[in-house]
Amino acid sequence: MNAPSRGTAVELDPPGPEPTTDGRFGDFGGRYVPESIIPALEELESAFRTSWHDDEFRLQYATLLSEYAGRPTPVTECHRLSDRLGVRVLLKREDLTHTGSHKINNVLGQALLTRRMGKQRVIAETGAGQHGVATATAAALFGLDCTVYMGAVDVERQALNVWRMKLLGAEVVPVTSGSATLKDAVNDAMREWVASVETTHYCLGSVMGPHPFPWLVREFQRVVGDEARKQCRAILNGKDPQYVVACIGGGSNAMGTFAGFVTQCPDSVLIGVEAGGLGLESGHHGAAVNRGVPGIVHGMRSLFLQDEHGQVVEATSISAGLDYPGIGPEHAHLAELGMARYEYATDDEAVAGFQLLAETEGIVPALEPAHAIGWLAREAGRSIPSGSTVLLTLSGRGDKDAAQLMDRLGEL
Amino acid sequence: MTVHLEAHLRAQRATGRKLLVPYVTGGLGKDWIDVVRACAANGADAVEIGIPFSDPMMDGKTIQEASQRALDLGATPESVISQAADIDVGIPLAVMTYYNLVYRMGHDRFAASLEASGISGCILPDLPLDELQRGGFDTAAAEHNVECVLLASPTTTDARLLDICRSARGFVYGVSLMGITGERTSLAGSAKIMGERMKAVTDRPALLGVGISTPEQAHEAAQYADGVIVGSALVRRLLQSGGPDEAGAFVAELRAALDA
Ligand SMILES: Cc1ncc(COP(=O)(O)O)c(C=O)c1O
């Protein structure tokens, strides 16, 4: 079989495993939401299950992915970076999709579902603005009304994406409650959904929230991992990469990547890279697996940064997309089973990764996957032995972060 | 002395009276205990005590702000529950909070601490029926004589409404509109339907809450149900530097409107 390559049609792999009927991955997940939105979640679950096994829906989705989003995305072998690090690095290039990140894969699927359910409006939360831009894009494409909730702090540091969303016809609502970042944007989007659920679909942007979102978003993102697996085998003469690495905010690009490998490539070690912020010991970070404990927030049982009373602690990260104190429930499950490893990179390491990839490969990554690069740069030759093969998902491109890094790095 | 929630509400209802349940954010100011007492003295049939949570998904700006202020003043689940032990006003008390705080303390410890403070009810808007039963908090609560109120919403199906009314203890909390807590200029049309749907399927006390803001709205809502819950309108007065006197006066106005 030929590996997916640009210009060929997207061929979807069969649907992946479902969570339990009560929406769990092991002990994680569930549906901890106000009564008002329970019927909408049930409707969404059944619409998704039916659609995901429906050939017509799958064809529409695959066609959008290839003809609109520009899939399949390539896997790029990084020769100069590999020389520098002493490990063989392959990048899955989600930065090359339309709108510039993996978020588009999910929103195109959810926009199709929205239309199937007969709803005319979508709302979304966004951190870095990539999911907001992707949602606004799909809304423009489908002729849907769109409102995006974004923490006021993020509105500030991702001004370019705010402007893009407005250009695309979306309303952007700055959220000032709490820490005014992604966590609070999710709260306000949920609150708005409680009021408008009968006409509005909540286009959640990561593998988090109440069932069926963690499952549904993983399925709409698994194309990343399914393509990458086949592409790696073509490059590596039938072998699988020894390490599969992705950054983690809520966990959607990582879960989509892992889904392509977790059962089919038992020898590949899966590694998620969390936001290390100012360092794990500083207490200012977004490392929910490394430092979180089980809890129930945003509709799901998962791991969260919280104090001894159960109040959620604000996350800290240079990257708006990783600035989240929790993680999707399927990751919590994989972590508990030891089926994936969860590491971290600090703000400084992410910035170093950002510069390293630009200088060695001519690719400017988003700050989120720059964490994965920064982590690999630290660990290559240490916990990742020299000569290893590493697939790393480059979840998005760095244009949105340019202004922020110009401030931080100054004259180059 | 603990007063049992459902038994008390049933007895009050039997006298022909409409039920009034104000909501007060626990730990909001040093005198919050006196605010609860003022509610009781001015005609409340039970009081809901909010335990502040960092991420109150079902709450609008007013209760969000009150929660944040209480947290900034150092309120914790332990402090609110233990201070409530001093209230002792002859009407039942219920806590309203979010499930993570219960989960973190542990089902049994949380329920036991409520019991020890004479609190007989618990309302968790992010713990719907299925998760309540699956996780077993209903059992832990029952072992400590804590009654778990359940919420029903305008979108709840008939079959599910029946399950909710059967499984709820204390009362059934009918959400009067599609939305979160916060004052509204008029009573939502959905309040009537919600009230009538509950009354048609259950004998358990059925109250309407969320968005009920004025004595007039309370009076109107009470025509369709056994009574009302009033939160944001009272909490706003407390945020605007009102104390026990203002709270008592507002509750008295609500009482008069319900009795009219
Ligand atoms: C480029 C990019 N990567 C990663 C993320 C983090 O999200 P997730 O963990 O769901 O992939 C974001 C979120 O905004 C993003 O924009």
Commentary on this structure:
The complex is a heterodimer of chains A (412) and B (260). Chain A has helices spanning 38-52, 55-67, 79-85, 103-116, 130-142, 152-157, 159-167, 182-196, 213-235, 252-259, 288-291, 329-337, 347-361, 367-379, 402-409, and strands spanning 24-25, 28-29, 75-78, 88-93, 121-126, 145-151, 171-175, 200-202, 243-247, 269-277, 293-297, 300-304, 341-346, 389-394. Chain A has 412 residues and is α/β, with parallel strands linked by helices. In chain A, the strands form four sheets. Chain A has a six-stranded mixed sheet with strand order 3-4-14-9-10-13, with helices on both faces. In chain A, strands 7-6-5-8 form a four-stranded parallel sheet, with helices on both faces. Chain A has a two-stranded antiparallel ribbon with strand order 1-2. Chain B is α/β, with parallel strands linked by helices and 260 residues long. Chain B is 48% helix and 14% strand. Chain B is built from 13 helices and eight strands. Chain B has an eight-stranded parallel beta barrel with strand order 1-2-3-4-5-6-7-8, surrounded by eight helices. Classes of the chains: A alpha/beta (412), B alpha/beta (260). At the A-B interface, helix 1, helix 8 and strand 11 of A face helix 3, helix 5, helix 7 and strand 5 of B. Pyridoxal-5'-phosphate binds next to helix 5, helix 10 and helix 14 of chain A.
